[in-house]
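Hi support team,

I've been running sequence recovery on a batch of backbones for a student project. Most finish fine, but this one hangs at about 90% for roughly twenty minutes before it completes. I'm not sure whether the input is malformed or the queue is just slow. I've pasted the structure tokens below so you can try to reproduce it. Let me know if you need the job ID as well.

Thanks,
M.K.
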């Protein structure tokens, strides 16, 4: 049995449906999954794989990968670093009303807060990507 078929069957079992019902709902032939199960096929078409992934609410990459990658967790130190960096960025932008303007008008407090939240999210994402990319596997949790 192929790993792809096993993943699809396991996800169907979690959802409480049969593979046949999945095929019916996704409007794909049951034969294509049967061929995958017995080894006559090694993979499914992108179209069918996309339909199955959408129905099961998982990314296509999850179905195709042998292991699921976990997003690195930010530590308290990482959160402090992000807060410090965010304060530096906002400080560089200036605290006066004239420093941040939109169409010649100073931005209001709500827009300033939305900008802060957006910058914070971007810093968190970049920190997670850096941790995933540059942390040796033996130190990952």
């Amino acid at each position: 049995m192929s790993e792809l078929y096993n993943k699809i069957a396991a996800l169907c079992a979690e959802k409480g449906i049969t593979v046949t019902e999945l095929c019916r709902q996704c409007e794909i032939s049951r034969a294509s999954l049967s061929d995958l199960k017995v080894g006559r096929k090694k993979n499914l078409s992108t179209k069918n794989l996309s339909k199955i992934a959408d129905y099961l609410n998982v990314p296509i990459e999850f179905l195709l990968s042998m292991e699921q990658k976990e997003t690195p967790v930010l530590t308290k130190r990482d959160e402090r670093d992000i807060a410090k960096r965010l304060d530096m960025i906002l400080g560089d932008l200036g605290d006066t009303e004239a420093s941040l303007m939109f169409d010649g008008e100073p931005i209001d407090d709500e827009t300033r807060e939305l900008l802060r939240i957006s910058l914070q999210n971007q810093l968190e994402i970049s920190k997670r990507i850096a941790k995933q990319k540059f942390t040796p596997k033996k130190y990952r949790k």
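--
Follow-up from support: It reproduced on our side and the slowdown came from queue contention, not your input. The chain has a mean pLDDT of 82. No action needed from you.
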